[in-house]
Amino acid sequence: MKIGEVHDANRKIIGRTMLHFDAVESTNETAKELLESDVEEGLVVWADRQAAGRGRHGRAWASPLGGLYASFILRTKEAHAWLLGLLIGMPVVKALRHFGVFAGLKYPNDAVYQDRKIAGILSEGVYRHDVYHVIVGIGVNTNVDLDKLPADVQPKATTLKREVNLFVANEEFLDYLLNQVDDLYSRYRNTRIEFLLKDYRGQCTTIGKRVSGKEKLTGKAYDIATNGALVIIDDQGAKHDFFEGSLEILK
Ligand code: BTN
User: Fold this and answer.
1) Is ligand 1 within 6 A of the CB of residue 20?
2) Measured from the CB, is residue 27 less than 6 Å from ligand 1?
3) I need a labelling partner for 223 at 20 to 30 A (CA). Which of 23, 87, 96, 146 fits?
């Protein structure tokens, strides 16, 4: 059920209008449904919990009360959907740091603290009435006790509540996060994407590490290609572009 609607005229595109729900299946799905009506770019769907939160690779995203679940609608070139999903990892990490968790950015867009995931992003491209939209969904383990997450997730996850002694209301976190995403998106619209990718490369803590991409691909994460791929140099010295699949950071 919708429980509120917030307007912020100071934002340029993202988060000028935000719809707040108590519970939805998935904020990405609600955002997609809203595309059937004539919604503005940057509209945010925020929910206190999700009954069927989704992660990347078809995984579930546990969404208990206390966590932050939000999606927003962008209209971009189809060719930029993947890159935007990467770039939005930067404001997420920035917001976590602002509130006291010195998170890193694991390729492609996971926020991690001491090798434990604290936030994730699911970006999905959809056509509606011949117009391409990107739905970017962000999940942050804010005010969640670790034992509220599934048992198999707990060893690899952490939460803001666990790492920081200060209580941070989701509303406050989201407000800061949306300001950062809005700034990034206006840079995206006004500068060359290569500049933003350079920033991303500088912030991506996977670069320089030994990684295992998928079966048999083990090597050093070396660079971010202009198409957003992670460039891995394998032990034989061959370069590979890695996009999707689970990426493991080796010790
Ligand atoms: C990941 O696998 O790391 C991505 C997780 C994305 C979760 C968020 S929560 C808000 C939005 N709605 C969803 O169903 N998923 C995303």
Assistant:
1) no
2) yes
3) 96
Q: Is 55's C-beta closer than 6 angstroms to any atom of ligand 1? A: yes
Whose Cα sits closest to atom 11 in ligand 1?
Answer: 137
85 lines ligand 1 (CB under 6 A): no
Task: Give this prediction's pTM.
Answer: 0.96
pLDDT per position as a tens digit, 7-19: 999 999 999 999 9
Pocket of ligand 1, candidates 30, 138, 173, 246: which has the most ligand atoms within 8 Å of its Cβ, to mutate?
Answer: 138
Two tokens, residue 177? 């996060």
